[in-house]
# Entry
Amino acid sequence: MDYILRGNDKDVTNVLKEQRIRINRGMIQLIPISECGLVTEEDARKTLECMLAEKNEEIGRLTASIAEKDKTIVELTEERETMKARIAELEVQVPSDEKNLPVADSKDLQEEDAKVVTVTDDKAVSVEDEKKTGKGKTSK
# Structure
């Protein structure tokens, strides 16, 4: 929405003071007008050129960001394909490794390999009352 603000200097100044936060944030843009009350073509052109330059910068940043992300996607896709190929290689090797195992391999433990551990408890537990006796009464 575009408006032309007209009024006495005091009221216009008050409106500008009240709206200075929105102006600083860029929510409201003030475009100067000429003395006859119209926006000059030169001012309008400058304003549009500034806006166009800002938008072009933003487009350039977004384009660079998209190109960087596309490059990352290609790299990750290549890495995924490499990993798939490596997994396929490893899966082919796994069955051949199983064939090389000796058939007589047993998980049973032979008795001659086992050690016999004997546990003896030589400690005797006394059930006596282990209260400390206090000092006897001494004469003065």
The chain has a mean pLDDT of 77. The longest helix spans residues 41-99.
